Amino acid sequence: MLTLNHITKKENFTFYVNCDIIIFVTRGMLSLENGGKEMTEVVINKAILSYHEANRYETIFQGEGLLGKKEHIKNVIKTSLAIADFKHSNVDREFLAVCAEHHDDGRVDQYRLLGKFWDNVVTHNALGLDRFDQFLLGLEEFTIDQSVNIFRDVILYHGRMRLANLSPESKEYVEIVTAADDFENACSCVSYLVHEVETDAKGYISQNPEADQTEVSNFVFDHFKDGVKFDKMKYCKTYAEYVLFAATLATSCIKKYGEIAKVALQQPGYGYDTILAGYKDVFRKTLAPEMAEEAYKVLASMIR
Ligand SMILES: [Fe+2]
Ligand SMILES: [Fe+2]
Q: Could you tell me the pLDDT band of residue 101, with boundaries at 50, 70 and 90?
């Protein structure tokens, strides 16, 4: 889907591994490749590096309930780097990868506490921040610098940027991780939405047993159609609205990233010939028939 397969850095060299081609570039050359923009190198705080070592995603996302999140993190790291390149962003790529890797660490604690991922009970953003802060407090000493502030902002505000007046330094990192997160969720959700609805994984039925779960407000449908993200916690009251929220991640990605998002949604994945075909199936299984048809028309017309 996206061409950047792997990026790693050693001393002064950055290795891009893209299919069979390995390109070695120095930092100076990299800035030329980056639309002429110099990258703003960030010295990563030692405390973040220790936290990173102690919380690698392959290690902390263990067990049946968390395995999907492990895959999610792997994809968000890769997509964050691809989006940074696509935008010719000047963010430090090594630090961006670290921020992307830990943006959802709070899911580990959320799952331990609740056995599910219910942000309306306790948000994984707050839990992730607490996890990092507890780690800091357990150290002999640490200093707060720009990298710590950015790292904390990514954990707390990814997906919720409108809530904060972020510093210019943090803004770009939070924005890229949020976009990669949306992108990844917009594609991968076709693999789990039906199961979530069938098992009441988000609690909409248990919290409101009387509600018609296929009902969709005009507000939600219009935002989906216009590709404008909205606050899921505030406006989703039924599974149909929750499914359309996921689809809004796709329409907003198309609006924001155009071709790159259209290509992604036309790639095979998660057992479907295309992600778009996955959406068609999910709509058919979770929405009222007329709404399913209407929603698919909106999405398909944006892609073709
Ligand atoms: Fe998240
Ligand atoms: Fe995420």
A: very high
